[in-house]
Amino acid sequence: MRILYSGLWYALMPALFLRLWWRGRRAPAYRARWRERLALGLPRQPGHTVWVHAVSVGETLAAAPMIRELLARHPATPLVVTTTTPTGSEQVQKLFGDQVLHVYCPWDTPDALARFFRAFNPALVLILETELWPNLVAAAAARHVPVWLVNGRLSERSFRGYHRFRALVRPMMQRFAGLMVQTEAEAERLQRLGAPAERIDVTGSVKFDLQLDDDIRAGAQALRSQWGARPIWIAASTHPGEEAQVLAAHRQICAELPETLLILVPRHPERFDEIARQVTQAGFTLARRSSGQPVAADVQVYLGDTMGELLMLFGTCDVAFVGGSLVTLGGHNLLEPAAWGKPVLSGPNRFNFERIAELLEGNNALITVDDASALAVAVSALLADAERCSRTGEAAQAVVAAHSGALARVLATLDQVWPQRPAGREN
């Protein structure tokens, strides 16, 4: 089955390059560093490394506290951190600079993975969340390199997709050395896919261990002090089909609370200019974060068109809506505004964060809205009632505090399995 899978990868490779070129129309970074996708021209490392694979910005931010701890605990072991998107790459470089080795993750073909393993010689592979690649896991197993899933999550929807290809997926799952997952539900789904029960450990989500450092707090406080006491809400990580609903909701909110400012942060940077046009065409006055424009009293929408600042921007608002949830994409991280003690709103589609949503709802800390009108009503009610707004935000923050500790459990396990190998290279 894996031979057929590999053959499909090779057959689709022209289409994959075409897709990179196509996406590069709006985000030129997709057309750069294409050789890394094939693991060509990689710098050969003299000894062993540990490979940490995150996908994009969200996984990188979730993994950042773990990576910092690993760098501190094991300074003699180089870390290779891979992503698949330019935005993830930018985040790694911004957070860690030359503290880690960073390249794009190679496509899941046997020859690309062989070149990657020869170049970096990993002695341990750590895969974040749901990056399940059959050839990657098989390549590691063939070299006797343990692979661990960290902060693993698998929605019911993703499970059904993997289960259709269980002849390919089951051998992969059996090759994992260990799987540290967020919930019992994920543990059960992975076991049904073939992961041995004795190798699965429910550690919780490291997203609950989010740290708001002094720089982030100071940045949020500085911005908020510039904007004064006006009501502010944020619509974060929005996708096509959501911005129009958010702007419709903002129009309704402004009719009731005219001084309200909306911070709008689209998920993908290649859409920033498009959304700026959409805002002005809707008749709103706009300021863009990237231009350094001041947010005067008449500015109605502030476009967060920079990378890596969303967590800070959450600290400036009174109410937070998290996107990817009014469209069928499964939602985004609800814990970032919760960690700030902000009331959290979401659409109904959040299967990527179902357990986190359940915990917040169970503590009356999450409000679900189905459309623009419901979003406007919920935001307006919170902005108009400071006591309720504060109470809901405190409830959200309490959920984050109550479920922290996953990072410590993950690190304790990794300390036990950390490779103890000589500095020489295996050929």
TrEMBL record:
Catalysed conversion reaction: lipid IVA (E. coli) + CMP-3-deoxy-beta-D-manno-octulosonate = alpha-Kdo-(2->6)-lipid IVA (E. coli) + CMP + H(+)
A GO molecular function held by the record: Kdo transferase activity
Residue stretches making up the 3-deoxy-D-manno-octulosonic-acid transferase N-terminal domain: 33-209
Pfam families (alphabetical): Glycos_transf_N
EC nos: 2.4.99.12
Pathway: Bacterial outer membrane biogenesis; LPS core biosynthesis
InterPro entries: Glycos_transf_N, Glycos_transf_N_sf, Kdotransferase
Keywords from the named record: Cell membrane, Glycosyltransferase, Lipopolysaccharide biosynthesis, Membrane, Transferase
Protein's cellular compartments: Cell membrane
Described purpose of this protein according to its UniProt entry: Involved in lipopolysaccharide (LPS) biosynthesis. Catalyzes the transfer of 3-deoxy-D-manno-octulosonate (Kdo) residue(s) from CMP-Kdo to lipid IV(A), the tetraacyldisaccharide-1,4'-bisphosphate precursor of lipid A.
Annotated family: Belongs to the glycosyltransferase group 1 family.
Name by which UniProt lists this protein: 3-deoxy-D-manno-octulosonic acid transferase
